[in-house]
Write a structure and sequence with these properties.
SBP; alpha/beta; 14 strands; transport; binds beta-D-galactopyranose
Length: 420
Amino acid sequence: MMKLSKIGLGIALALGLSMSAQAAEVEVLHYWTSGGEAKSVAELKKMLEAKGHTWKDFAVAGGGGESAMTVLKSRVVSGNPPAAAQIKGPSIQEWGEEGVLANIDGVATKEGWDKLLPKVVSDVMKHDGKYVAVPVNVHRVNWMWANPEVFKKADATVPTTWDEFFVAADKIKAAGMTAVAHGGQPWQDATTFESVVLGTQGPVFYNKAFVELDPKSLDSAQMVEALETFRKIKQYTDEGAPGRDWNLATSMIIKGEAGMQFMGDWAKGEFTAAGKKPGVDYICAAAPGTSKGFTFNIDSFVMFDLDNKDLAAGQNDLASTVLSPEFQEVFNLNKGSIPARLGSSMEKFDDCAKLSSKDFVESAKFDTLVPSMAHGMSTFSSTQGAIYDTVTEFYNNDKVTAKDAAAKMAKAVASATADL
Ligand code: GAL
């Protein structure tokens, strides 16, 4: 009996150890704290814990993620990075250069990610040819969200061009309502501004300005025209706009307190969380002049190299969960985005998402697919910050002329890129 129990104890210990060797506490930094966002990230927590790991939530509120990035930098500098963080676009290369990211090529190769992702996506997820990030979704930024009741009351029509926008906005304002729900924060100013640039100047100019950072495009009559159109929007916002969080602007559309919001489709996550139906309670429409274009914003998670094999197992399970068909569906249904994984069924998605999915493919075919400047897809964070600062200063200070702002933008971008 004694002998048997010793063997039994040995097996139990070995099993226990092997189980504990796999289980890890996975700390994840993100900034998904609004209603719709929180519901979405809860799905990831649920799926990771079903694999035996513990999810340590490292949520830093603040739309657009600037606050989260500040906190992350301090954690990494102090040698104590989380296991994973919501990092996306060219910033992945910046972090890759720091030599702090974990290589997740193992799980990527095993699962054939190169075949599961469009090349425009997989290229962004690699540093020195190795996967260091996993994509969560594809958000479309050039959306306009409209409340049909407000338009009906004002006898206005949902605009498809910027000229039509000003006609509709005047009607809504004349009817005593707020035409545009806006949050006066740099990233939100930039989100609206980039849709004005795409809608008034087109994708070729957009890419020259925000991807190539061509000084002759940044400081040009075209940029002046876009800036002037952009600032004209301010007269249609309410006095509560300065500093308002994006999801509170979305709730103004949900409650019929305003007619339109220019925001990426994470706003759809708020409508969904509020039980609202597209085409009934709200309208999703391309921002004026951009129906043939698609401004993409791909959320992703990087894994940090923690030199710990248990944690590495947890990180690999996190990466594998994120790209799984199940997660890609349930997360994006809640988040308002569309799956990053090729071949994902769109059956359960609403008409806005189906339009997004169709336009994503079409725009790639006709070169009208552009990376979002406002959401860190088109350039490094320092250059993005230079554009943010000049756009927001111009929007808030009527004494700054569009011509001056365009010149300032070109200068600020040149000095930000010179330092790279
Ligand atoms: C974007 C991010 C979205 C959403 C939005 C509002 O930059 O990619 O997932 O979080 O900010 O915070």
